[in-house]
Model the fold of this input.
Amino acid sequence: MTATNRSVAERLIVEFLGTNDNPTSADWKALADKHPEHASAFVDAALVRAVGDAAEASSEPYEFDAGLATRMVSKGLSKMHQTSSTQLEVAQQRVKAVKTPAQKRELATKVGIGEHVSLLAGILVGRTLAPRKILAAISAALDVPGVALREVFSRLFEATPLPAHKGGEGKPIVAGTPATWEEAVRGLSLDPKETARLLSFSDKA
Amino acid sequence: MRKRETHHQAQLDSIPSLATSELPRRFGLDHHHADHIASEVLATLVLNRVGQASGLTDTAAEALIKRIQSLVGKRWQGMKRRPEVLRRGSQAFEDVLDYVWDKLLEEKGPFSNAEYRFAVFVRDRVDDFLRHLRAEKNSMDSVDGMGGDDACATFTADDIADENAEAPEEALMRKQQSAKVNQALMVLPKRERDAFYFREEFKYEWAKVAELLACSVPTARKYRDQAMEKLKGAME
Done:
């Protein structure tokens, strides 16, 4: 089998297994009927799947090798630190892309914050903790996982530069933790009805 | 975007509120414990590098690597006799663990819904790895495998009619199809394995088996018989 044939067969197998989680012999046969030139590769794939499944279902336990685990953890962590997270990078890019006031207004409206763009701006730089409902709405609007967004916001807050202090008296007030949603909403001093509406997004609501 | 299962989402949401000392314990529990953190959640923490600065990602990764070893280890027990696995020795197991971890780090989609479980991801990557190993071996064996003594021999309709009749031995063999047979099949030469599988599992007629093997019906039959003999020996 040439390398090209092998890659075609492999692609067919991956597609097939993607749609058949527990393929039967009849399913494999149907695949072989359709692509007889790759029948041998399908036999091998069918055997790999069947033997693996049987081993998983067997009562024979796997004796955990602690020494090997130590080596694999060390190697695995090293690889992880050398690679960047695609999901996190995508989330970072999508958050950064919301730059202009118009884009922020549009997103604020989309996620239910309405005209209070400063609330959204606080979230996007990590200054304000997004409640779950808002986070889910931003996640849907930007099409990135909420967990990645939370991490992006947290990193942005950590990276916030400290403001320069040139005053002669007193000390600068620097928040050590992001503001809660309630603090941020109340800080806007809106009318009671709008305040109540925004507070309804809160995790405690 | 795939939606995360609610109980996994709840676990994910609970992570920030768990004490730092509590996390390694809960990450280290296996799925038999009610308190365990799902592998899908650990994978999500790793893929998004959640809490990297505080060491949370590393703790999750360590637990996940150990879980991968357990999952792969169990599945691997069926593969130990494969020639390409035997040839690599214990290195093959380390290689498959590396492969699964590499693929996980490359993963773009979120885990944790009915159609995409972590265990399914690991199973599929192990099988991918084995197929690649097999493909490597086959390309090395291809010269030996293609040289049939009568690969181009002609066959007649009479051959086909006779050969298509099912012998009691064949029926018995069909009933004996089991994990053990499949395991034994994996160590057979490719043509014998294929002849057996096409005929006994796919129930192809001999003419079709011969066509797929690019040989005559008698040769195909010979391969199948050789496979039968070896399987019987392996089953004894």
Remarks:
- Chain B has a mean pLDDT of 80.
- Residues 6-142 of chain B form one domain.
- The two ends of chain B are 52 Å apart (CA to CA).
